[in-house]
Amino acid sequence: MTFMLILGGVAACYLVWLLFRLAVFALPAYAGAAAFVVMLDRGFGPGAAIAAGLAVGLLLVVGSRWVHARASIPGRLLVQAAFAMPAAAAGYQAARAVAELALPASILVPLLGAGAAVAAAAASWRSISAAPLPRDPVDGPAEEAR
């Protein structure tokens, strides 16, 4: 019994770590799901809808990294904020769902959700801003050229 409690605690800690590690992919996941639903609604088959959803998500990730690496500071802040808002929504939804399972209905449930939203947004912001900047072979690092 004690061993199962320990394993449950380890699994819960791993899921929390996974939530914050993957928070940066909330925007591509939402956009890919939206593209999938739109393609199905327009009469395309499931294969084409899945391909469109994956393509939209991949293009969003690659395009945002490219823009973040080459944009000025306001452009970087815009990319970081665009990724932090869906991550905050995902963190809020995940924490509120778990809190509603474990706690009775009280003011603590939305407060835990709000705390997780802030933490997920901060994790997403950190992940985007930690992406390495490309090096310019002529001028050196891209950061010094600005």
User: How many structural units, i.e. domains?
Assistant: 1
**What is the mean pLDDT?**
84
Q: How much beta, percentage-wise?
A: under 5%
Q: What's the arrangement of strands in the largest beta sheet?
A: 1-2
**What class do helices, strands and sheet pairing give?**
mainly alpha
Gyration radius, in Å: 19 Å
Helix percentage range: over 70%
Amino-to-carboxy terminus distance: 59 Å
Tally of DSSP β-strands: 2
Give the SSE string. Answer: HHHHHEEH
Low-pLDDT runs of 5+ residues are none
Helical element count?
Answer: 6
* Global morphology: globular
What's the main sheet like?
Answer: 2 strands, antiparallel
What does this structure look like?
With 146 residues, the chain is mainly alpha-helical. 80% of the residues lie in helices and 3% in strands. It contains 6 helices and 2 strands. A two-stranded antiparallel ribbon has the order 1-2. Helix 2 (26-41) packs antiparallel against helix 3, helix 3 crosses helix 4 (73-102) and helix 4 packs antiparallel against helix 5. It is globular and about 50 Å long. The termini are far apart.
Annotation keywords:
146 residues; mainly alpha; two-stranded antiparallel sheet; 80% helix; globular
Compact description:
This protein has helices at residues 2-21, 26-41, 46-70, 73-102, 108-129, 142-145; strands spanning 135-136, 140-141. The radius of gyration is 19 Å and the shape is globular.
